[in-house]
Structures are given as C-alpha cells and as structure tokens.
C-alpha cells in the first residue's frame, strides 16, 4: 500500500496543473431585456464547451490514477525504479529479559520431609542482571495428583500489587495459563502470614490449585508458587506444611540468609500434624 500511495502522489502532481488551468466558474450573463433581439443575446455555447473540457480532463485524471494504482498493486516492489523505494517498517520485538538462566544450578533450598518418600525435586534458577537470584523448586508436574512449585526470589525486582497479575506472570514462566481465580485469603506459615488464592491453572487440562505469595526475612525474600493436584492434597494445611519444611541447604553461601532460615523453624505451625497423615496414608 505504500507503493500505491507513493505513485498516487506522483499522479496527483501530474494532473493538478490540468485543474489549475481550468477557468473559474462563469458568471451569470446580465439579464436580457424582453425587447432585445435574438441577435444581441449572449452566446452560451462557449460555457457548454468549457464544461465539456472540464469533464474530459476529470475523466482522464481518473484513468491515470486508476492505472497507476493497478500497476503498483501488480508489480514486484524490487522491479520499481529507485525513486519508488518504499521504507520497510521495522518488526516489533520484545525487550530482552532482565535475567539469565543458571545452567546446572546448585540446590540451595529443599524440603525437610524425612517422613515422606517424595518424588525427585527439580530445580530451575535465574540470575538477574541487577543482582539477585530466583530458585524454583518443583515436585511433580501439572498433571500429577500432587504438584508443588515454590519460587524463592532474592532479587529486588518490582512486584505487582495485584496477586492475579503476579500469578499470571509466574504461571506463564512455567508454561501454564490462569483460567480462573477466587477471593484471596491468608495462610499462616513459619514465614508469617502469606496471601493464598484458589486458582485454576491449565496446560492441556485444567487443574485446581492453591496459589500463594508473600515476603519473608524482612522483605529480602519473595515467596510465590502454587500447590495443585487431587482434592485431598490441595488444602491450606498441606501448603502450609511444605512451606514450613522449606529450608536452606549447606550449598547456600549467603550467611545472612542461611541462619535466618534455620531460625524460622521455631515458628513452624501445626499444619503438618494434619497434612502428613493424608500423604502417608496413600503410600
């Protein structure tokens, strides 16, 4: 369409002089007295001939514009002369991420669950350009009867004030979509009070989940994630139990965080007393 516009501008530049040469609208002839003879009446033939020339020029101009437009639409842009070069619009690209993935990340956090024979835990990590790191711990997958994902973010990246927006962003990073969500509630853990929200996450199928988010250690750590699976597992005491058992491993070299995690163990709630028997009963 840029070519059509360019050629149309050329066409207008050619035909505008034709219209500029047209005479102005003829003035009405003076009234003729009733007694005036036909020989002295004004000649209107020239006026009709002037209108005919105007109509002819307008038709010619229309044919010129139509022909150029058809030529532009049916011509390869590479075959046009240099004067018809059309500027190409740059493609829109997303800005680069503010982090880099960590290859073969060390396990800095784990769940202290000696009572359970848990499936293998997977770890993903990212290092932020502005400093800080986020570790994502996952047990199971979205279609399993039990699927837990906990992200420990020690960066100072801005967080949304909307729980739903945060959840949608984190779910997208895990290849999931948020289909529905309900009213947020509070969840008591050893880290303090966290936000908790029932949500439906989906990939191929929909799954009922409990999402959570909150700050710990005076705001230096952001916790977020979800627990999905069967109804017997997706409960607030089960989620609180696993968060209470989240601990730092000796691989964590940040001295200001490792002892703080250990010190929080004294704040564990009674959630595991009711949650663990439901898991062990299935084994």
Report on this model:
Helix 1 (2-20) runs antiparallel to helix 2 and helix 4 crosses helix 6 (271-280). Helices cover 30% and strands 26% of the residues. It has helices spanning 2-20, 45-73, 163-173, 236-244, 258-263, 271-280, and strands spanning 99-101, 109-111, 121-128, 133-139, 146-153, 177-181, 185-189, 192-202, 206-216, 221-229, 246-248. It is α+β, with helices and mostly antiparallel strands and 283 residues long. The protein contains 6 helices and 11 strands.
Which features would summarize this protein structure in a list?
26% strand; 9-stranded antiparallel beta sheet; 283 residues; single chain; two-stranded antiparallel sheet; alpha+beta
Short description:
With 283 residues, the protein is α+β, with helices and mostly antiparallel strands.
């Amino acid at each position: 369409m840029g070519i059509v516009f360019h050629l149309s501008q050329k066409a207008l530049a050619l035909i505008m002089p034709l219209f500029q040469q047209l005479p102005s609208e003829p003035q009405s002839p003076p009234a003729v007295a009733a007694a005036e003879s036909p020989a002295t009446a004004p000649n209107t033939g020239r006026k009709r001939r002037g209108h005919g020339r105007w109509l002819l020029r307008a038709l010619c101009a229309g044919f010129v514009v139509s022909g150029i437009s058809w030529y532009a639409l049916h011509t390869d842009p590479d075959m046009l002369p240099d004067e018809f070069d059309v500027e190409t619009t740059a493609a829109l690209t997303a800005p680069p991420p503010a982090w880099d993935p960590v290859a073969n990340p060390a396990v800095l956090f784990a769940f202290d669950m000696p009572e359970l024979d848990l499936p293998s835990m997977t770890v993903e990590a990212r290092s932020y350009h502005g400093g800080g790191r986020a570790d994502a711990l996952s047990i199971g997958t979205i279609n399993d009867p039990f699927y837990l994902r906990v992200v420990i973010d020690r960066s100072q990246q801005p967080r949304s004030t909307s729980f739903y927006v945060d959840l949608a962003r984190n779910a997208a990073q895990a290849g999931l979509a948020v289909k529905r969500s309900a009213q947020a509630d509070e969840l008591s853990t050893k880290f303090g009070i966290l936000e908790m929200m029932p949500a439906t996450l989906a990939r191929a199928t929909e799954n009922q989940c409990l999402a959570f988010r909150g700050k710990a250690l005076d705001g230096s750590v952001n916790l977020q994630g979800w627990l999905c699976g069967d109804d017997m597992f997706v409960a607030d005491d089960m989620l609180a139990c696993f968060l209470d058992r989240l601990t730092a491993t000796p691989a964590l070299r940040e001295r200001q965080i490792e002892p703080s995690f250990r010190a929080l163990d004294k704040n564990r709630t009674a959630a595991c007393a009711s949650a663990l028997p439901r898991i062990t009963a299935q084994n």
